[in-house]
Amino acid sequence: MSRIAFIGLGNMGGPMAINLAKAGHALRVFDLNQDAVNTAVAAGAVAAMDAATAVADAEIVISMLPASRHVEGLYLGNAGLLASIADGALVIDCSTIAPATAKRVCEAAAARGLQMLDAPVSGGTAGAAAGTLTFIVGGEALALERARPVLQNMGKNIFHVGGSGAGQVAKLCNNMALGVIMAVTGEALSLGVAHGLDPSVLSQMMAVSTGRSWATEVCNPWPGVLEHAPASRGYSGGFGNDLMLKDLGLAAEAAMGVGASIPLGELARNLYAMNSHAGHGGLDFSSVIKLVAKDL
Ligand code: NAD
Fold first, then answer.
1. Among 102, 124, 245, 111, CA closest to 183
2. 3-163 to CATH, choices 3.40.50.720, 3.30.420.40, 3.40.190.10, 3.40.50.300
3. Are the beta carbons of 186 and 221 closer than 8 angstroms?
4. Among 49, 154, 176, 208, whose CB has the most other CB atoms within 10 angstroms?
5. For residue 124, what pLDDT is reported?
6. Statement: residue 78 has pLDDT above 80
7. What spacing in Å lies between the alpha carbon of 247 and ligand 1's midpoint?
8. How far apart are CA 192 and CA 253, in angstroms?
9. Whose CA is nearest to atom 13 of ligand 1?
10. Domain extent listing, the chain
């Protein structure tokens, strides 16, 4: 069992930290939101008064923050957390952030003599709670072997995709494909319904045909087709439209960095931006179907 500091106990980090506490690790937690801290404490974690106290004698430091600026602010900003982390500790950032930022923070950690991995996740809040996340890891293989037992307490699949920042690139590739597939699945179902088709029958057919995807089978965007999909509860919960918008913005930035062409990814980014402007930013990203479906 390890001494672990966990920073960022939101929708994802909260349940991930609880799984580490359940696994028996000595867990110190910090979040700006006291309610989030209280939930982790109820599961066996110890609350720290600030991030520096949380990491003071930790062997492993894990962060799960909203975006690049939060990660940069935490490790390199005024708080300068890297300076407070014990020598020899391993740092794992699970947030989804820009690959360039991940590299910059990892380089600063290396300069301080610390191993650091970027390990963004896929699997959503349900995967975080169930401990079945997929970890998409960038960094040194030896650091990953150190992290593996702890990651296995929170997830089911672990992929080592390359050096620092590579985990973020791979995560953005996955989410860009997901964003495009969800948008076109919404278009396909709307087209069928406009022709009088039953969206459930259409979805069942697609789920065993070549148009099948996670969007038809697990997170179907048409209300009532799948009982447990966000669409069937007013698009609440799930993966927020604005988080998808953030990831597509990061994908666009990453594409520009290497001169890559992502015409559909850019188009999808605009669709999720339009959905956000329509007031649906806080809804599940499958609500992008509202841009094209009459009466939804
Ligand atoms: P969230 O907004 O629910 O949680 C973020 C937490 O970080 C909040 O509790 C906030 O108070 C805390 N925080 C912010 N700055 C802090 C600081 N300086 N010190 C301490 N705590 C701080 O976000 P989330 O849904 O948990 O997502 C976290 C990351 O995981 C994001 O990068 C997101 O893109 C990614 N992600 C989310 C999902 C999902 O389904 N929600 C799925 C995969 C990946």
1. 245
2. 3.40.50.720
3. yes
4. 154
5. 86
6. no
7. 13
8. 35
9. 8
10. 3-163, 169-291
Please list, residue by residue across 121-140, b when 16 or more beta carbons sit within 10 angstroms of its beta carbon and e when fewer do. Answer: bbbbeebbbebebbbbbbbb
What type of residue is 210?
A: T
126 lines ligand 1 (CB under 6 A): no
How far does CA 171 lie from the centroid of its chain? 8
The residue-averaged pLDDT of 252-269 equals 97
**Residue 32 in contact with ligand 1 by CB distance below 6 A:** yes
Cα–Cα distance, 296 to 291 (Å, whole number): 9
**Residue whose CA lies nearest to ligand 1 atom number 44:** 121
80: pLDDT confidence band, cut at 50, 70 and 90?
Answer: confident
Q: Model confidence at 79, in pLDDT bands (50, 70, 90)?
A: low
Dihedral angle, C-alpha 100, 105, 106, 107, nearest 10 °: 90
β-pair partners for 26: 3
The model carries a pTM of 0.93
Continuous segment of H or E residues that includes residue 53: helix 51-55
Give 79 or 155, the one with higher predicted confidence: 155
Q: What is the pLDDT of residue 90?
A: 98
Say which amino acid occupies 254.
A
Fold observed for domain 169-291: N-(1-d-carboxylethyl)-l-norvaline Dehydrogenase; domain 2 (1.10.1040)
Confidence of residue 112 (pLDDT cuts 50, 70, 90): very high
- Residues with a catalytic annotation lie at 171
Q: Is the CB of 245 under 6 A from ligand 1?
A: no
Q: Token pair for residue 83?
A: 């300076």
Cβ–ligand 1 contact at 174 (below 6 Å): no
Q: How far is 140 from 130, CA to CA, in rounded Å? A: 27
